[in-house]
Every structure is written in structure tokens, then in C-alpha cells.
Amino acid sequence: MITEETKALVDDGIMLPLMEEFYTIQGEGFHKGTAAYFIRIGGCDVGCHWCDVKESWDPSIHPPTHIGEIVEKAVASSKTIVITGGEPLTWDMTRLTGALKAKGCDIHIETSGAYKLTGQWDWICLSPKKIKLPTEEIYPLAHELKVIIFNKHDFKFAEEQAEKVSENCILYLQPEWSNRDKMMPLIVDFVMKNPKWKVSLQTHKYLNIP
Question: How confident is the model over 5-54, as pLDDT tens digits?
Fold first, then answer.
């Protein structure tokens, strides 16, 4: 049972519901192949039916952890930090990213953009979802747009989202893992016809690493 005092600390971003943290190789998008320390924050109500980390949705099952402890473990492994979820922007990221910045870290976020952008970011990977669209403020700030392709209708959604980001934003189409064999030929064909897009693969799954 979380006390009112702990809840207040979580609401203020001094503590966060930490699902897991690990040092691995970034498997997706622009920084694929790069060693990085991942901080996975619990809590997400976007509710993608194909989500592969549904255990992250309920923040109450993940222990509220002081950001000082999170930062100490992170910087012991890497100066490249990826904050993901769940949906990390469910929570105020200001204090966590400020503490990481004070340690000289390069900080990335993977987000649906469904909530207000808080924190200091060196790289924003925006992965929008149809059922809960991003806030308008995040589109021009995104460094990469990563749209998950589960069915044919997602290509239209991808183009709609691409119209909202800056011209310098890198555009990626990534097959949803369970449907990759069916969708990959369609993605390849689409990218060849629309070369502003690139293919993103979940290479960590092929490598069998976290």
C-alpha cells in the first residue's frame, strides 16, 4: 500500500514507479546498435492491444523508487540513457532528467507523446498511437517518428503523422513483431515508393537480448 507521502513524491517526480532497468544495445530506430542504459517506467493507459510490455501498464505493481537511486545505477553503466515505458510522460520527468544531465548524460525518450512533454531531452523518439494521439507541442520537437505497422491502415496514419513533424525529423516504419512476416513485404514496398521513410526493425529481438 503506497502512503500519501510516497504518492506525493511520485506526483512530484522525486520517486517514480520503476519497472526495470538494464544495460543493453538499442535495438530500434536511429540509434540501433548503440550501447545504452534503459530505464523503464511503469504506467500507461494508451492501451495498444499488441503491446509487448503490457505488464508495464499498471504503475501500482512497480515499486516507487527514488530518482537518486535510479540515476546512481544508470551512470555506473552508461552515459547514454533511454527512458521508456509504459508511457514515461505519464509522470513529471523534470527531476529525473535534470539529475541525469548533472551527471553529463545523453538522454533519450521513447514516447507516444500522449501527455505533456516534461524533462530535458537530447533525443525524442515519438511513436504515436491512433487511440491516444500526441499533444501538438511534441511534433516539432521530435527527432524521429516511429510508426508501428500492424495492418494496412497504419500506412495512412503514418503519412498523417509525418505531416505534423519537422522536416528534419527522421521517419521510420516498424512492423509490429507478431505480425512482421505479413507486414514486412508491404513496408519494404511502401518505403521503396516513398523513400522519405526508413525501415526500423526490432533488432534486439533478433539478437535475443533485452
Answer: 999 999 999 999 999 999 999 999 999 999 999 999 999 999 888 888 89
Residues with Cβ within 8 Å of residue 34, at least 6 apart in sequence: 25, 26, 80
Is 48 annotated to bind a ligand? Reply is: yes
**Binding residue per annotation — 106?**
no
Stated as kind and residue range, the H or E segment containing 145 is: strand 144-149
Amino acid at 205: K
For the question of whether the overall pTM of this predicted structure is more than 0.90, the answer is yes
Distance from C-alpha of 133 to C-alpha of 123, rounded to nearest angstrom: 20
Cα 153 versus chain centre, distance: 22
Instruction: Give the whole-angstrom CA distance, residue 50 versus residue 9.
Output: 32
| 105 annotated to a ligand binding site | no
**How far apart are the C-alpha atoms of 149 and 155, rounded to whole Å?**
7
Q: What is the pLDDT of residues 164-210, one digit of tens each?
A: 999 999 999 999 988 889 999 999 999 999 999 999 998 887 677 77
**27 annotated as a binding-site residue:** yes
- DSSP state for residue 30 in the 8-state scheme: T
131 annotated ligand binder: no
Query: CA dihedral in degrees (158, 160, 163, 167; nearest 10)?
Result: 0
Please check whether the domain covering 4-206 is classified as CATH 3.20.20.70: yes
- Does 128 carry a binding-site annotation? yes
Residues 6+ apart with CB under 8 A from 39: 18, 21, 70, 74, 81, 82, 83, 84, 96
Spatial CA neighbour of 196 closest among 167, 176, 175: 167
